[in-house]
Design brief:
By secondary structure, the chain is an alpha/beta fold. 44% of the residues lie in helices and 17% in strands. Among the domains are: 138 residues, 3-Layer(aba) Sandwich (Rossmann fold), CATH 3.40.50; 151 residues, 3-Layer(aba) Sandwich (Rossmann fold), CATH 3.40.50.720. Strands 9-8-7-6-10-11-12 form a seven-stranded mixed β-sheet. The chain has a five-stranded mixed β-sheet with strand order 1-2-4-3-5. The N and C termini lie far apart (47 Å). The chain binds glutamic acid (GLU). Glutamic acid binds next to strand 3 and helix 12.
Amino acid sequence: MSKIYDPYLNVIDVMTEAMEIGQMDKYMFEIIKNPQRETKVYLPVEMDNGDVKVFEGYRVQHSNIRGPFKGGIRFHQDCDLNEVKALATWMSLKCAVVNIPYGGAKGGVRVDPNELSHRELRRLTRRYAFAIEPLIGADTDIPAPDVNTNAQTMAWILDTYSMLKGKPCPGVVTGKPVELGGSNGRNSATGRGVAISTKLILAQDNKTFEDVSFAITGMGNVGGNAARILFHRNATIIALSDVSGGIYCEKGLDADEISRFLEIKGNYLKDYQADGVLHISHEEVLTCNCDVLIPAALENQINEDNADRLQCSYIVEGANGPTTVEADKILEEKGITIVPDIFANSGGVIVSYFEWVQNIQSLTWGRDEVKEMLEKIMTDAFTELLEETKKCACTLRMAAYIVALKRLIYAEEIKGIFP
Ligand code: GLU
């Protein structure tokens, strides 16, 4: 029987192990372990039928020692303060590992957005933006999209915030529509970063996308874009899943056609039909015989109940926290190489950083420039991770945590404790 999963304890466990392997002084760890601020808000919303519902929302600001708080906002029925706390901590580590000048934060609303109409969702988002307005700002805390939120959500937050301030404030959110100051390439950036991470790890074994088969769980912004980008580079994607279940085709799935199918509201993979395509469960996608597994859905997908059954050689973590501490040990024993979430899915926040820089300077960068700079930042960071794995004889996850913690601790040390 697996123990009850707690994402925040999970990240603390991994950080604690990295502190030991990296032989870091524990003096500042107590500070880095705890978020700087946790906020819970109650959001009354008038529903279309005249009823009033009150939703719970959160914003956890983990650290701003390396720069403004930064991190997405998710809308999910299972979201709670503890999950947001873990996600905020991962954001501080993520920004530190790729060395962009941000701290970490995360927000969330406990709601199933599929049960709300467009107008209800807009009212809820605006009310949430109003509730967290005192906390956010272009130089204090910058939200972005996450699970079940997108450029439209960011447009509503941006507008609510700008109305309250009485002036346009494009830098308050990233991942907004290009027409409102968003960056070229931001929408697909996390998926692109996952593809870059995959390319980097395969190159270590002299392999390319064409040499391996892929399975991807989750067809949201991260999984969907990763699938399309890999498909365009001649990768064979044999299995995919979304909330409704999975599909499998040994010869390879057409990620373009599937993405177009899923764009239609109400369509799920369970309804997708094509020659040679079999319908399988989400668990069967995770455990299928593939070379590269990309978990791109929620946390805790790979745990001690299924880790032993995984048949892949590489895991590239598109989601935040998809693998539990217990599963990590099992996978290490099985010799599966894991490219950890805080590096593998950092493409989103890296391009968020580019968007913010463009907003501050009132500039627009081209798509190719964005892609090139994203690849450079990720390649440089990956080289550092490889060096750390050699120095500490550890996994890539441990190396990523060590690199990130060293940066956070160093910043904390030179700044000192206030007052
Ligand atoms: N939600 C994304 C993440 O988990 C992006 C965050 C951002 O761009 O601030 O990394």
